[in-house]
């Protein structure tokens, strides 16, 4: 199970950015060869099992679509120059464009062009899943410079029965209770939304495999929406029984901010851990509502599904100007941005792993000095340590877990977890019910 | 069961104002001929059952009083002119005045006169239920103009055993669970407090009779306090078993504001519906506490009675300057004021009728387009519609009723109810437990 | 059981200050003759049972210490004058100082001296329970005036096996449920922290003995921390079964403010009563958190102990400048200060005694006039009385106790308790379950 490529975690941001750079040019869509190529590359990092679900399969209220494949697509200008070229940037072609090979005037062509007047240098990302059409996307600046004359448009694409693919890996832990990480691999060349998600998922996968685990971790790489629905339709019972917490991994690579979208329930273990980490260690984060949702939590938190899944992100989809354009690129997402996305999820997982209800083992306050927990020389910091420890002991009544103690006593997770470890080692607290700290 | 007179609801305010104008001059009191005359007129609109309870009947801690009847009452000035005349305005006579026929000086007369120096043009409304006395009310301006001399006062009244009357109508619905509407008919010539209450009750009665009903509706026209106690003493067990919500209908006719007094419990179905309608559709309403109560909710919400009854009003009793004076007249209460009072209660009732817990019927988000619920052409409004529908589907987990969904998703009832209807028609939501939308 | 000395409650502040003045010079410590002398003096006021627990007894995580006795301790200056003298002020000697008789230079002496540069006139209070050493405390002003030369230091002390003493009295009431009052007697010559606590405890004991009691009252006089742990280790099961509320009595004698530290649970009967009294009658009080704790609630509220014990104080330990210095003296604590400390606890206890859930005995509002509860002549105050009474009757539904009614209806305890008494006398309310007002 040793991967072909091992991430050096001292450089996690750089390494994930390098991997992202390799995956960036691939033309991904809901289905098709781009998805398979992406999963194949990720399999060098994680032992992914790649699943296939045939087109036409019913999944809840939906149907698995046909595969869309593009061999080439371009527009020739009146002088025969390839001025809009899918080979150069796969965003140039409207997703799910039907085949065409035709000459037309600029005026006719305009009906098939998409650009953003208010962002004149950006190529927009457009798809047309439900209505058959073809089209090209380009920068508004380029569009305005197009001369009158006859153009030739070629889309050499196929829409045919095939399969929907997704990758899955289970990293087992002490318990068969699972933490569920989901990310998606259906976007063409865009970086924050959405190669950053699979990058951080890959990093977390290798990191988790390298450490002792209380919980088992299931990571899936799926196409958004239809993939989540497909996965749920095949695994719902298992997920509902086993998943204790989970995250939808998306938009994890830029440098600007941190963001949070709760699960629908709002107070699951995933939510509590995420909020505890964010409030303490990233206090400037943006706190959204489930009403601001927009990714696979739409399926995971639907009534009757009700998985405990939240989203911790950097700049959230729909909220940053480069979203769904060619400006969401390898410069917007940076090594530090990815390292930060990886780090915040790592902290959430560490808190989930260490989240137990504790109970003091002695009645009344213990004599900390007996356990070497009382400082010989008092400093401001050691005084604060003693106060925090006495507070932990005073509130460890078996009813409050680590997250509750952090919040109640205003001790950030990064201080709290080692302190709970020390008290546990000293025999002054025990986990309820019986259990060890990971 | 067809009424003598049918209200034209396109003109509900005007029609109720016309009825009010006919009832205005009648001298109502807790008991007696004025009450009977009023009930008789209302019976032309609703099939009222008129009940009689003999004087002296014990009702809880109280006793049904004797009937007070007035044939005539006036004051003659030194020149023999009828200057204060019960025939001209029944507020001129203190309620429950004992008989008198006597000459006296102005100074002696003053001991029996009541006026409001700070509202010099208003005749105050005064009663003396518990202490035997006679007296006259007049404007302060008139009082100050009274010349010295000998006056003659005549009160030709009787206080004798009789009955307490009240009217009652039950408008049956699909369920024998009841919505209870109570209003009072014990005030002489005053309009907001209190002919507006019976007017709106009458309008609601005809409107309810004309539409399909999930619940049964019980409307009572009673004297305030002693009537409510009397009604409770005879029907408490039934009410406690059957009433799911109710409103005390009072002060529903002026044009100025809307007001709300909660039930004592504060979170009954009546309260939740009223607050949902008021916050969304009348956001400037005045939100009072049960500590500001002052009408029959004092009895309906007493410990051991505990009916789910709230008050939705226009200008609340005791809070507007004309309250309990001759200025609370047919000009203060207007057709638009009455129409507004009728409308707000109608909206509360519609929301109660449509209040169910809903559950989505499919797992994951449905594909709205399949049901014709996705707009062909996107507009700002259609986008908002889709968002609202997806939010409704995302939160319809069988645990939240219409009112909770309105509040949580910030969708006003007037938008929510048709939208729930559409989702229900499309088979995308179902009521929990089984049941149909009305 | 009649005490030797009876407090005159019309002068409670003065009498407690007089007693405090007699006890002030005694050198108290965790154990030893000073504690016994103090308990013996208090026994003239209350029938204390004095307990002995041998040194070396294990109590939870701790051990009962040996007895520390001091016969004399002083420093002679180069001219042989007794310049630092334990006989003059027992704060001059570091608590638990080991014996010494030695000459040394000023420089060597300095290593054993303690003073407060920022409070140059105060002698600090220092103890060294866990590390063997000797030392002297003095004002910084005196320290700076010490001339060079040879000094002689003498500490004639013993640390030997003995006993830990505490005093206890049970004042039985109708019920064997107990209110628990704990105070401590382990501090040398300091007044607010801590002779004021035993003073108020003594006053409350005599006051309680003189009135009818619904609850039984247990008062203990213990050394702080080790005494509380010792008491708990011997009585925990009984306390957990019987104690319905309690207070840790400390810092009750200065004139400046009132303070409150909740129990860990925060909403026990003691907390609710204290907050109700403080918010209504001492609205400027300082509201601390359990995280600000610092006295025996650390033991009483520890997990697994969980007694319902709060602290109502005047200036809280650690929060006033004179704390733990010689400035915490008989001038800082005043007769009015002590009277106020006594009074606030008395009010808390009165509220606890009268705290019952009430239920109205009639359905609907009663006719207050029948019971003489309706004023003949209306004044602003009598109007407020009627409103308050009607509100009490409207909310007395058997689910709300006196404290809840006070809060909900904004009626201060001092108004509420007599009013509940009147309604109870009139038969309009009854206690739930059956029970009489004390």
Description:
Three copies of one chain form a homotrimer. Chain A contains twelve helices and 19 strands. Chain A is an alpha/beta fold. Chain A has an eight-stranded mixed beta sheet with strand order 1-10-12-11-13-16-14-15, with helices on both faces. In chain A, α1 packs across α5, α5 crosses α9 (335-353) and α7 (269-281) packs across α9 (335-353). The first copy, chain A, is elongated. Chain A starts with 11 loop residues before the first helix and ends in a 6-residue tail after the last strand. The A-C interface holds A 359-360, 362-367, 369-370, 390-391, 393-398, 409 and C 59-62, 130, 225, 228-229, 232-233, 236, 264, 290-291, 293, 298-299, 301-306.
What is the element layout, followed by pairings?
The structure is a homotrimer of 438-residue chains.
Chain A: H1 12-23, H2 33-42, E1 49-54, E2 58-59, E3 62-63, E4 67-76, E5 82-85, E6 100-105, H3 106-110, E7 113-114, E8 136-137, H4 140-144, E9 150-160, E10 163-171, E11 178-184, H5 196-209, E12 216-222, H6 226-242, E13 243-249, E14 259-261, H7 269-281, E15 286-287, H8 297-300, E16 309-313, H9 335-353, E17 357-360, H10 380-395, E18 397-401, H11 402-409, H12 413-425, E19 429-432
Parallel strand pairs in A: 7-8, 11-12, 11-13, 13-16, 14-15
Antiparallel strand pairs in A: 1-10, 2-3, 4-5, 4-9, 6-9, 10-12, 14-16, 17-18, 17-19
Summarize the structure.
Three copies of one chain form a homotrimer. The first copy, chain A, has twelve helices and 19 strands.
Q: How many strands, which pairing sense, and closed or not: the largest β-sheet of chain A?
A: 8 strands, mixed
Question: What's the helix count of chain A?
Answer: 12
CATH architecture of the largest domain in chain A: 3-Layer(aba) Sandwich
CATH C-level class of the largest domain in chain A is Alpha Beta
């Amino acid at each position: 199970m040793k991967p072909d490529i091992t991430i050096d975690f001292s450089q996690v941001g750089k390494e994930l950015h390098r991997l992202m750079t390799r995956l960036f040019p691939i033309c991904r869509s809901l289905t098709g060869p781009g998805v398979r190529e992406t999963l194949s590359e990720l399999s060098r990092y994680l032992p992914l099992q790649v699943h296939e679900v045939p087109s036409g399969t019913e999944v809840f209220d939906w149907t698995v679509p046909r595969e869309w494949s593009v061999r080439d697509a371009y527009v020739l200008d009146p002088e025969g120059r390839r001025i809009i070229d899918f080979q150069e940037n796969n965003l140039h072609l409207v997703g799910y464009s039907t085949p065409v090979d035709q000459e037309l005037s600029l005026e006719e062509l305009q009906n098939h062009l998409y650009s953003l007047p208010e962002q004149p240098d950006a190529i927009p990302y457009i798809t047309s899943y439900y209505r058959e059409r073809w089209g090209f996307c380009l920068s508004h600046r380029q569009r305005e410079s197009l001369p009158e004359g006859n153009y030739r448009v070629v889309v050499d694409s196929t829409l045919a029965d095939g399969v929907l693919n997704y990758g899955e890996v289970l990293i087992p832990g002490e318990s068969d209770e699972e933490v569920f990480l989901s990310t998606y691999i259906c976007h063409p060349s865009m970086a924050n939304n959405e190669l950053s998600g699979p990058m951080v998922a890959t990093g977390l996968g290798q990191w988790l495999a390298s450490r002792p685990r209380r919980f088992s971790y299931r990571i899936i790489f799926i196409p958004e929406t239809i993939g989540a629905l497909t996965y749920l339709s095949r695994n719902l019972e298992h997920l509902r029984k086993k998943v204790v917490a989970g995250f939808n991994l998306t938009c994890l690579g830029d440098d600007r901010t941190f963001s949070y979208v709760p699960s629908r329930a709002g107070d699951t273990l995933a939510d509590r851990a995420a909020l505890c980490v964010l409030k303490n260690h990233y206090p400037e984060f943006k706190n959204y509502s489930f009403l601001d949702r927009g990714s696979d939590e739409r399926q995971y938190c639907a009534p009757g599904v009700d998985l405990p899944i939240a989203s911790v992100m950097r700049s959230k989809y729909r909220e940053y100007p480069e979203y769904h354009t060619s400006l969401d690129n390898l410069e917007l997402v940076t090594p530090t941005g990815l390292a930060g996305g990886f780090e915040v999820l790592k902290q959430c997982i560490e808190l989930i792993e260490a989240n137990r209800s504790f109970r003091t083992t002695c009645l009344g306050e213990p004599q900390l000095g007996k356990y070497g927990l009382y400082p010989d020389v008092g400093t401001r910091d050691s005084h604060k340590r003693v106060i925090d420890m006495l507070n932990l002991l005073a509130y460890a009544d078996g009813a409050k877990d680590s997250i509750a103690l952090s919040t109640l006593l205003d001790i950030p997770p990064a201080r709290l977890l080692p302190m709970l470890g020390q008290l546990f080692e000293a025999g002054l607290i025990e986990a309820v019910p019986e259990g060890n700290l990971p």
